[in-house]
Write a sequence for this structure.
């Protein structure tokens, strides 16, 4: 039994969310907001996986999402730790300030 | 009925995602992100993926948002960019590029019909064995290696974060010399 919401609705919604996330990465220059937008994009992809998993009756999509969640949690932790470390060198979280690899 | 609920939730999800970008206050952005994560969790519940919905709330709304808020409070919300005007050439270019991306991705949704082999996570099986048991069985048989690797990745993440968050070695050396 397939529920009433068509698959294309979920795919289109996740496309819109992914686009908003990508646009946010381009528009904003604050590293914290950019990380948040990356999270929005990951959630959009996860939604696609779960929708396909539902409509193909497959557990594989949900396992994929589970793994993506693990990677996303690690990525946020590492990214924010890097940001705190960067903030010790330059008193800013603006990505335009971080233009030098050395010290 | 479910379709109306879907549309309302979709509007909330899109508005909260836009709120993450177009909020000047970082704390407000993080809270908008929390709303977005919760709507996605409700979509998981609607898609009959209850386990992932709970994990989404636990991991994202519970851990990731708290981490974001913690860093925002630690570094101060006033750091970074000072947005005075949203309508700049760069913003317009970014919006244009996003619209192109949306057109490409959105048209591909309608262009290619969904096809593929149906698996064994059917409604009958879910009612008989339960969602979590079926996913757990798949996770510990077919995907055991990736499950173990996820554990290793988490360990590496923990060690990496502790190493990154340590005191700067130079200062330690200076205090030792003194």
């Amino acid at each position: 039994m397939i529920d009433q919401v068509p698959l294309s609705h979920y795919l289109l919604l996740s496309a819109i969310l992914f686009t908003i996330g990508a646009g946010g990465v381009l528009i904003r220059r604050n590293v914290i907001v950019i990380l948040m937008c990356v999270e929005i994009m990951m959630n959009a992809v996860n939604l696609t996986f779960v929708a396909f998993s539902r409509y193909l009756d497959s557990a594989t999509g949900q396992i994929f999402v589970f793994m993506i969640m693990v990677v996303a949690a690690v990525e946020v932790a590492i990214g924010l730790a890097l940001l705190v470390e960067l903030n010790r060198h330059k008193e800013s979280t603006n990505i335009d300030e971080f233009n030098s690899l050395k010290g | 009925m479910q379709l109306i609920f879907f549309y309302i939730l979709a509007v909330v999800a899109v508005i909260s995602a836009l709120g993450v970008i177009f909020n000047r206050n970082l704390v407000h952005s993080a809270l908008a992100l929390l709303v977005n994560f919760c709507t996605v969790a409700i979509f998981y519940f609607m898609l009959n993926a209850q386990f992932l919905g709970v994990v989404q709330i636990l991991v994202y709304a519970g851990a990731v948002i708290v981490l974001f808020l913690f860093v925002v409070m630690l570094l101060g919300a006033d750091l970074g960019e000072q947005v005075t005007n949203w309508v700049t050439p760069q913003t317009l270019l970014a919006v244009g590029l996003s619209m192109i991306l949306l057109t490409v991705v959105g048209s591909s949704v309608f262009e290619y019909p969904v096809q593929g082999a149906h698996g064994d996570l059917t409604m009958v099986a879910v009612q008989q064995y339960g969602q979590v048991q079926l996913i757990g069985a798949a996770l510990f048989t077919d995907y055991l290696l990736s499950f173990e690797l996820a554990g290793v990745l988490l360990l590496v993440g923990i060690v990496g974060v502790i190493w990154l968050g340590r005191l700067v070695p130079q200062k330690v050396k200076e205090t030792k010399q003194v």
